[in-house]
Design goal:
single chain; mainly alpha; two-stranded antiparallel sheet; two-stranded antiparallel ribbon; 21 helices; 17% helix
């Protein structure tokens, strides 16, 4: 550093000589300094130069044109690009498929990044990879092979759309096109058939017309009856230009298209007698206007009013007499195949039907009571077709009914086909309803499995459940080969008593669970004799609860998962050592050496044999506690210790002992 100012460095003169500079030079210098300062400030505000499309918005004073300040800064793209905003609001066009929120420009910068310089492209297109379906207009058929500018051309954009598109050069925009075919293609029908070309044409071939898609009813000549089956070219014949005509075709009268087969014999129009449903379907309205059939011996009523004349007057000779006294005079052959020919009326149709219609039949439940099979109970509520299956002329009305299975399938999979039931459904069911069954408890007692104890109160469905072992359909099981308990009940003991369960009862069958339990109650175990085990219960053990010896796992309160064979037969395995291990041998106290199962006291301890202090004389009647008085705390309990106990008389009787009671006289 030289210690000079920047001006001094640039001019080479000290500052106090600046007054000698011309005024114009000073003004130039200050102008340069101002421009340099403004450029530095703008560089600090703007992250970079704008693209060429936005050059008119450059400069620090135009920031608010694109950015909204106050709070969190936001973009204002859609304020200018209203054509995009309009499509977003309508959920139409490409941008709408990007799930952009309408009314906000926050997501525009994800694709259109600014401040990257004048030559940076704001819009990037990969024409080859672009999926046109995203615009809402998939390119199908011949559209798929066209170049973009074939459709996206200024000539195809309507003046209304051109007025709202911001891009001045319409060759550079993809907006503004209509999905209407006529926006690109000339309408050869000149608007006569509307603007929805797809109702007849497709995108593959213009000449391939799908007549089924065109609604001819919107024209002045709706197609009805057989006209709907006529090919388009039959009516739309070529005109002078050798192209199909869709206008100027006469259709006011039938004779415009059809020749008169009557050659002018009838003055009335064709539609007076005929319809588009078929030439042979003669309209009776015109005939009725001239001929009143009610004046004949056979007035037309019901369905007869709609019968064509030629169905009765087959030869066309209306003067020829017809037989009509009986329905069967006309209605032949008998649709029931003579099933009712033996009835008193010979099977006359009018007994069950009317001229109003073949269905419903007049034959009621009351009439059915006069047949060999009166309908009772649930049968009276059935529809005829449930028994007399409709098969047209093959429908059977004379049916077998001696056995229920003549109509009903065997729902029990032949379990009752043999003796004593022989599939006689009425042994357990009635015609009132299939359920409930009439099979009673008294009847159950006649089966191989007599219900006793708790089984009497069990619902039928608890034992008789549906099984998939029957084919072709599952059925409820009523017969079992094995009537052992385990057929229905799982063995909760997992085979621990298998040998006991295989013992044979008086009737020669395995005892099963009943070797220990009864049907009265699962907890009733009077049949189990513990004396037959390796550990007969005697003495105080007889009153001990099972769970006190047979301990359930995992702190359970039931014996369901107990391993009964694991119970020990040794006292010390179940009972705690009450003596604090003072009699233990190899850390085990053998209780049976002093006690038995009768009761804990008095003990069997033999003081004469097992100690060095035999009890004789007056000592024989002394209580144990009179000599053994030493207590210790073991495991939180106060335990009487028998050793060591002094043997000297003075230890119990004091120093003054009469001679007659000396130890020498005692032992």
């Amino acid at each position: 550093m030289t210690g000079k100012t920047r001006i001094e460095q640039q001019t080479g003169e000290p500052c106090h000589h600046l007054h000698q500079f011309p005024f114009a030079l000073l003004r130039t210098l200050f102008g340069l300094l101002f421009l340099m300062s403004a450029t530095a400030v703008a560089a600090q505000i703007s992250p970079g130069a704008l693209s060429r499309a936005h050059q008119s918005l450059g400069g620090p004073t135009n920031c608010a044109s694109c950015h909204k300040f106050g709070g969190q800064a936001a973009l204002k793209c859609l304020d200018c690009h209203t054509e995009i905003a309009s499509r977003l609001n309508q959920h139409a066009g490409l941008h709408a498929t990007y799930n952009m929120s309408a009314g906000t420009s926050r997501e525009c910068a994800k694709c259109h990044s600014e401040h990257n310089g004048e030559d940076f492209p704001l819009v990037k297109w990969n024409i080859q990879a672009f999926d046109h379906r995203q615009t809402g207009y998939p390119l199908e058929g011949k559209h798929a092979g066209l170049s973009c500018n074939r459709c996206h051309a200024p000539a195809h954009i309507s003046p209304q759309e051109q007025s709202i598109i911001k891009v001045k050069d319409l060759r550079r925009t993809y907006l503004g096109l209509s999905t209407n075919c006529a926006s690109c293609h000339q309408d050869p029908h000149n608007g006569r058939l509307g603007n929805t070309c797809q109702q007849c044409h497709n995108f593959v071939d213009w000449k391939s017309i799908d007549a089924a898609r065109f609604n001819h009813s919107i024209t002045r000549y709706p197609l009805t009856g057989l006209h709907a089956l006529v090919g388009c070219a039959k009516c739309h014949t070529p005109g002078s230009d050798n192209k199909p005509r869709y206008t100027g075709i006469a259709f006011n009268t039938c004779s415009d298209c059809h020749n008169d087969p009557h050659r002018g014999s009838f003055s009335q129009t064709c539609e007076s007698c005929h319809t588009t449903g078929g030439w042979k379907k003669v309209s009776l309205q015109s005939v009725a206007e001239k001929f009143d059939h009610s004046r004949t011996k056979f007035p037309l009523k019901g369905k007869h009013e709609r019968v064509s004349c030629v169905q009765c007057h087959a030869s066309g000779d209306f003067k020829k007499p017809l037989a009509f006294a009986r329905c069967m005079d006309c209605h032949k052959p008998d649709p029931h195949g003579g099933q009712f020919s033996k009835r008193a009326d010979g099977g006359e149709c009018a007994s069950c039907h009317t001229v109003e219609g073949w269905k419903p039949s007049l034959f009621t439940v009351k009439d059915h009571a006069s047949t060999a099979y009166p309908l009772k109970g649930g049968h009276a509520r059935l529809q005829c077709a449930q028994c007399h299956t409709p098969k047209g002329k093959e429908t059977l009305f004379k049916m077998k009914f001696e056995r229920c299975t003549d109509c009903h399938s065997d729902r029990h999979a032949a379990q009752f086909a043999g003796a004593p039931y022989f599939n006689a459904c009425d042994r357990c069911h009635t015609v009132d309803s299939y359920k409930p069954s009439t099979f009673s408890l008294a009847q159950h007692q006649q089966t191989r499995f007599i219900l006793a104890g708790g089984h009497i109160a069990v619902s039928c469905a608890d034992c008789h459940k549906e099984s998939g072992s029957f084919q072709p359909k599952p059925a409820v099981v009523y017969h079992w080969v094995d009537l052992n308990c385990t057929t229905c009940h799982q063995d909760p003991h997992k085979g621990q008593f298998k040998s006991r369960m295989q013992q044979v009862k008086a009737d020669g069958t395995p005892a099963g669970c009943e070797a220990c339990h009864s049907t009265t109650s699962w907890k009733e175990l009077s049949r189990f004799d513990h004396a037959t085990t390796k550990f007969p219960l005697v003495g105080a053990h007889r009153a001990t609860a099972c769970i006190d010896c047979h301990k359930p796992p995992n702190l359970e309160t039931k014996l369901i998962n107990v391993d009964f064979s694991s119970a020990s037969t040794k006292c010390e395995d179940c009972h705690a050592d009450a003596h604090g291990k003072q009699f233990a041998k190899a850390d085990i106290t053998h209780c049976a050496e002093c006690h038995n199962t009768a009761k804990w006291k008095p003990a069997l301890f033999d003081h004469e044999v097992r100690t060095s202090f035999p009890l004789r004389g007056a000592h024989q009647n002394v209580r144990c506690g009179a000599c053994h008085k030493s207590f210790r705390t073991v495991g939180g309990k106060n335990v009487l210790f028998y050793k060591p106990t002094p043997k000297e008389c003075a230890a119990c009787h004091g120093a003054t002992i009469p001679a007659s009671t000396s130890t020498k006289s005692m032992y």
